[in-house]
Write a structure and sequence with these properties.
Layout lengths: L1 H10 L19 H14 L2 H12 L15 H8 L6 H12 L8 H24 L4 E2 L4 E3 L5 E3 L17 E8 L10 H16 L2 E3 L2 E11 L4 H13 L5 E4 L2 H13 L4 E4 L15 E3 L4 H15 L6 E8 L2 H16 L4 E9 L7 H10 L3 E5 L3 H12 L2 H7 L3 E4 L6 H5 L10 E3 L15 H12 L7 H21 L7 H9 L2 E2 L10 E2 L11 E2 L1 E5 L4 E4 L4 E2 L9 E2 L4 E2 L1
Parallel strand pairs: 4-6, 4-7, 8-9, 10-11, 10-12, 12-13, 13-14
Antiparallel strand pairs: 1-2, 2-3, 5-6, 14-18, 15-16, 17-20, 18-19, 21-22
Length: 570
């Protein structure tokens, strides 16, 4: 902790310092190879980068491993939940660093001005390193970036090009998503993302070689079927010649991220919070955006410990989607519960088919278990069904009568899609909300960026009452920022510059709650958002009420080399 604080203090003395990250490296499977690479990189790195790598090694044992890899250390999260985070000095230093770049976030122009200043800062930092030969693709064919980040470009396909997908008029971006099936509600995220790109194209386009290029989204509906995702990714690569690809869904992304990394195709900000996306060593072309499901699992447990002390130890039941998405939740919470038997006496996971039209049998089994806490570990329409079935089965009344709690997952925060249709049964449900604002929530509709989003949706004939359209902006905004950074680097917009920009991004995201950081830092910090609110739903006001402080463990999550067969991160 002392070294980390010293680094934060020193960072204030440099105009173009890199953001430090206190995060563990990859686990023991690749330690030997990683050590050799780190030695070579450190020898060529400047003093500040060497310090960054030293911190990553120092904190390697502080984070969670196993199923809970991809999360910050349990003690860090629980201290933050309890309001006992003793790292006040570091927080004060971070605030001082932020004050160097103060803009008026109460206006849209102020938000855009801040974005431009942050981009310029990142471009200056990266350009300095690239011109010094420390970052970028070297003569040995290795792409190097911040905090020991490396990609061996010699392993890319022989016909690979860094400018594939960039034409005289377009930057072609592929997207697989679910526009049909039980998770079809998420399909409109693509429409919102495309709506933001349309605004960029018309008002502030990406420049390539001094001329504008339209961002063109090529969307494929995989119906949340991984086999279909594989086919569409092949089509996007071979026929559509896309620059990059964004996928939705944990099983879908896991089905293709090996191939996309072997093909050296950027896959940043995927639409899933699976911890596996925090793997800059084995999957350097892939990153996530939202809070890791592993962090969410620990936050559930920490909340129970802090808020249900009179009931401890409690019985917990989980409704688990029976696929890789649900597995991440199930394994994560199971590992936490096993390590905290003073909090959880029994844990019953009940799995359901992702395509099941009803959840009556599963929820009947859960009600018979008589849990003190129910956690919905599912997604899409099953989130709504779980809330409705909890009410109809008597589970909702039983848990509330004994002073327990019911949780819906972070991926089902959308009021219009999941809470409003459940009526009174949605009242008082809890959520570890991932630190993101719902664009239909009365608290936020008048904020400048939310109003900007909703106005754009109306102009395009899209219904702003469907907050998942605005979720498209949540993903599109950082995507656009990374593209702009890459376009201003030496060599202009290309795939290697884009992934350097992604791995270096440090931005204010106007759709994130105050107190939530949005950063990546090479191999040291592989998770973009690492914080959350605890919120409770008010069905009468149709709003999520934040209860307690925002929890942010930015930069403290361990990397995750996902090993499904052996139970999680390794």
């Amino acid at each position: 902790m002392i070294k980390r604080r010293m680094w934060r203090l020193l960072a204030l003395l440099f105009a173009f310092s890199l953001v430090a990250a206190a995060c563990g490296g990859d686990d023991d499977a690749d330690d030997a190879g990683a050590s050799e690479t780190e030695t070579e990189t450190t020898a060529a790195a400047s003093e500040d980068e060497a310090m960054d790598e030293e911190m990553a090694e120092e904190d390697d044992d502080e984070g969670a491993t196993g199923a809970l890899g991809g999360a910050a250390a349990e003690e860090d999260i629980e201290a933050a939940v309890a309001g006992e985070d003793d790292d006040e000095e570091m927080a004060e230093e971070e605030m001082a660093e932020e004050e160097e770049m103060m803009f008026d976030r109460s206006t849209l122009q102020g938000i855009f001005d801040e974005a431009a200043a942050r981009r310029a800062k990142t471009v200056a930092e990266l350009t300095e390193k690239m011109e010094a030969g420390e970052y970028g693709v070297s003569d040995d064919g290795i792409l190097r970036g911040p905090a020991g980040f490396e990609i061996d470009m010699n392993e890319c396909p022989s016909d690979w090009s860094s400018t594939t997908g960039i034409t005289d008029s377009q930057v072609r971006i592929g997207h697989t998503t679910a526009q049909s099936g039980n998770l079809a509600a998420y399909g409109v995220i693509a429409d919102g993302w495309e709506n933001y790109f349309d605004w960029m194209n018309a008002n502030d386009p990406i420049m390539v070689g001094g001329s504008p290029r339209d961002l063109t989204l090529i969307v494929k509906d995989d119906g949340y079927v991984a086999a279909q995702t594989i086919e569409f990714v092949d089509e996007l690569i071979e026929a559509e010649n896309v620059f990059s690809i964004l996928t939705l869904g944990s099983p879908n992304t896991l089905a293709v991220y090996d191939k996309l990394n072997e093909e050296c195709i950027p896959q940043p900000f995927v639409m899933t919070g699976h911890p596996a996306w925090g793997d800059p060593v084995n999957h350097p072309w892939t990153t996530g955006l939202q809070m890791s499901y592993s962090t969410e699992s620990i936050l559930w447990g920490a909340w129970i410990r802090e808020n249900l002390s009179d009931l401890l130890p409690v019985k917990v039941a989980g409704l688990v989607m029976d696929n890789d998405f649900g597995l991440a939740y199930e394994l994560g919470f199971h590992e936490w519960a096993e390590a905290n038997t003073d909090v959880v006496s029994e844990y019953l996971p009940v799995r359901h088919d992702p395509a099941a039209p009803t959840l009556t049998n599963e929820m009947t089994t859960i009600a018979a278990f008589e849990p003190d806490v129910f956690i919905s570990m599912t997604a899409g329409n099953p989130c709504l069904l779980a809330i409705q079935e909890a009410g109809q089965s008597g589970l909702y009344d039983d848990i509330n009568a004994k002073g327990g709690a019911l949780f819906t997952p972070s991926v089902c925060k959308a009021i219009e899609a999941y809470m409003k249709p459940a009526g009174d049964y949605a009242n008082n449900w809890w959520i570890v909300g991932g630190g993101i604002k719902d664009s239909t929530d009365p608290k936020y509709v008048d904020e400048p960026f939310i109003a900007f989003v909703n106005d754009n949706l109306v102009e395009a004939g899209l219904d702003p009452a469907v907050s998942l359209y605005a979720t498209g902006y949540m993903f599109g905004y950082p995507y656009g920022e990374a593209l702009r950074i890459a376009a201003d680097l030496p060599g202009g917009l290309n795939r290697t510059n884009f992934i350097l920009a992604v791995r270096s991004i440090d931005m204010y995201h106007p759709q994130a709650l105050d107190g939530i950081n949005a950063q990546l830092n090479g191999s040291a910090d592989a998770y973009f958002i690492e914080g959350s609110d605890f919120s409770q739903f008010d069905a009468g006001a149709q709003t999520w009420n934040i209860i307690g402080d925002i929890v942010d463990v930015n930069g403290r999550s361990t990397n995750c080399a996902w090993d499904k067969d052996n139970g999680g991160c390794r």
